[in-house]
């Protein structure tokens, strides 16, 4: 017999596990985002200095020289093969849940979570995630990230969601039905690919400049753009130990635009699979979400590509960081009680 | 407003159902009204629009073309005749634009076999031919459709005894189209698919066993064999080549090759004991239609050569057919055992 539930005793969570950042939206009003990094002190000295067993998110990044640093989500999925990576995912999830004030156990409280994964995540990836969530929440539902975005925005009919994060770009056509494999695509050319490309281009132009991939990522987040530059992009990096201003306008544009060809090709491919009479509607209802969607001019670039096919509208979401977790929370809150009982963690 | 609520409610039900399947270890394949064959061919039809080189050899109607040309640094340039609609891959030809441009697709990515399901529960056995399609045969003597059914039934009994769930694409002498066979396999959520056939090789004296998985071939002999086995499909071999070119990266490819390897190894190993002059004709790729539309690792085994008088005589012997069934069973069992992969802890030496 099912346990009688009182919704007030239950906390609902929407979680967007990202390669770069992970966010949580909770039914108690809490919303948090953390960097998807986990680090353990590298040695006894580091442990003594940090006075912590594990550091997560921004703290881990800030102290990375003292840590064995893990970025446990690769292309939005748990890496397989290393116990440390599995432990890191668990630590990350635990931190998100703690931030949301939703730790289990207190006064019999139960936690129900909806977690978004890349559109083409395989069953084994989902099973691994289920294992990692065991003990952290009472019930768990796993959905594709673009589906969570679509649900949260109520873009469920004749819409396309393009969710570009760090590790993956997820595409999903919503036709009023649960998206099947033919409605979804995942590309692994996303934000990280831009970082790598930018690092290469800047290193080629300024061979003596010293910079890390974390600096490159920050430059992209602050100045990333596609199309004609509005202003020159100037950043600072040490050359021979001296802070030096570098003009990286051309490199930034080239790196950011490098993700466009596969993304546009995938968008067109998915559009082509839509029944012809609905293609126009879908073309005019494309939603661009995810952290990488913040790159200036990206929505316009997609629209420009659509012009060849009769035009279209691309709406960039105003809150790309939380749109996935908010969608997950909406699913969690809407799912009927009896359905949650079928989904023990 | 009521409509969106209805849509949300339906979507939630399906999301929950998918998760329940995951928890209970069921493998649901989602389909939206189009058959598996239609999907596979739609995918193929789209791929027909790929390189100009392929098109040059295709001849006839040109499939849809909407392509993006990649630029290393500059903005994307889309090349196509301006059109109000992106062509649907299954739409009739008159809806498709005529312009064709080359496209550079990334090479297929290797598939991590660890990402595949870890257990074999359901085996789909497909006895080749049947009904009006007799397959190969000896005038007034043995006929392929009967041999394959007999071996299929023997194999099914062995597998059931070992605890596998078995689904047969036919249980009697009836005509079943290649598309129907694939639909049966997909509907049953089979974990592996084995099509049983008997070979006919005109070269005098040739005998042996060979096992196929899906892929194109340049071998004219295999091309003829595939054409013979595919004759009821309605698709030309030229079409098939292009379809297959697009699905090299299919996750089933590596697993199908592995399954074919196990089956061939066991077939040859077991049968040469009673048929010492048997040839191991190996694991091969060929474009058999029945392997295209199945969603699971799928192979086609040519378990004997009816054109060889000595093998034909052996095939007439019930014991030999039982040997074949045992050998196929061992191949499937070996494959199933090998999919029980070690845990992460075991792999890292801590298990």
The ordered H/E elements of chain B are: HHHEEEHEHEEHHHEHEHHH
Q: Could you tell me the strand content of chain A as a percent range? A: 15-25%
Number of strand elements of chain B = 8
Tell me the CATH superfamily of the domain at 7-150 and 323-340 in chain A: ATPase, nucleotide binding domain
- CATH architecture group name of the domain at 7-150 and 323-340 in chain A: 2-Layer Sandwich
CATH architecture grouping of the largest domain in chain B: 3-Layer(aba) Sandwich
Helix amount of chain B, in percent?
Answer: 40-55%
Largest interface: A-B, 64 and 58 residues
The structural domain count of chain B equals 2
The coarse overall form of chain A would be flat
Distance between the termini of chain B: 55 Å
Task: Give an account of the 3D structure.
The complex is a heterodimer of chains A (345) and B (351). Chain A is 38% helix and 24% strand. Chain A is α/β, with parallel strands linked by helices and 345 residues long. In chain A, the strands form 5 sheets. Chain A has a 5-stranded mixed beta sheet. In chain A, a hairpin with a 4-residue loop joins β11 and β12. Chain B has 2 domains: 51-95, no CATH class; 113-338, Zn-dependent exopeptidases (Aminopeptidase, 3-Layer(aba) Sandwich). Chain B has helices at residues 2-24, 36-47, 52-58, 144-161, 178-187, 220-229, 237-246, 252-271, 289-292, 309-315, 318-338, 344-347; strands spanning 67-69, 77-79, 122-127, 165-168, 192-199, 209-214, 280-286, 298-305. Chain B is elongated. Chain B is of the alpha/beta class and 351 residues long. In chain B, the strands form 2 sheets. A 6-stranded mixed beta sheet of chain B has the order 4-3-5-8-6-7, with helices on both faces. In chain B, strands 1-2 form a two-stranded antiparallel sheet. In chain B, β1 (67-69) and β2 (77-79) form a beta hairpin. Mean pLDDT of chain B is 70; it is low at 29-118 and 341-351. Classes of the chains: A alpha/beta (345), B alpha/beta (351). At the A-B interface, α4, β10, α8, α9 and α10 of A face α1, α2, β1 and α12 of B.
